[in-house]
Amino acid sequence: TEYVIKNIQWIPANSFTVEKGLQQIEELISTWEVHESWLHWSQFLREEEAEHGKRYHYRACWSIPTRRKPIPRATASVYFVIEISKMKPATSPVEVSFTLESSRLIHRPEQCRFREKWLKDIIKNKITLMERL
């Protein structure tokens, strides 16, 4: 069977606020298939003026706390950019992309299925590095 990529209805640029951006990122994250043991928190990082618009940067920090280890040894971050174009009509939806910590690959929610394995790999690599040091 063919997998259908889950995405959300992004707000138009003229309705955007930093808070609404954070709410929409949370809504997108809720469509991702991650085990319930994963917890995350999200935050707004900064606003950036670009040549053709504005970019709003956010971060979602992920971990799997347990009873034995409520403070995880490592976390994995996903960085989001919401872009508002000066070139497109104000009623056009915002453009959203995300990257994973330690990766330059830019993902688009409408073109990409999020993989829990990506988070696991980041955490595994960090723990391996800490053990070597």
What does this structure look like?
- The protein is of the alpha+beta class and 133 residues long.
- It has one domain (13-131).
- 22% of the residues lie in helices and 29% in strands.
- The protein is built from two helices and four strands; from the N terminus they run αββββα.
- The chain has helices spanning 18-29, 116-132, and strands at residues 39-50, 53-63, 76-85, 95-100.
- Strands 1-2-3-4 form a four-stranded antiparallel sheet.
- A hairpin with a 2-residue loop joins strand 1 (39-50) and strand 2.
- The chain is elongated and about 50 Å long.
- The N and C termini lie far apart (45 Å).
- One of its GO terms (molecular function) is protein kinase A regulatory subunit binding.
- This is AKA14 protein.
Please render the helix and strand layout as text.
Elements: H1 18-29, E1 39-50, E2 53-63, E3 76-85, E4 95-100, H2 116-132
Given helix and strand content, the structural type is alpha+beta
Please state the average pLDDT score: 93
Q: What is the number of strand segments?
A: 4
Report the end-to-end length measured between terminal Cα atoms: 45 Å
Shape: elongated
What is the topology, as strand order, of the major beta sheet? Answer: 1-2-3-4
Q: Helix coverage percent of residues?
A: 10-25%
Major beta sheet summary: 4 strands, antiparallel
SS element count, helices = 2
The poorly predicted ranges are none
Instruction: List the helices and strands in order.
Output: HEEEEH
SS strand fraction: 25-35%
How many domains comprise the coordinates? 1
Determine Rg (CA atoms, Å).
16 Å
InterPro entries: AKAP, AKAP_28
GO cellular component, one term: cAMP-dependent protein kinase complex
Organism: Todus mexicanus (Puerto Rican tody)
Protein name: AKA14 protein
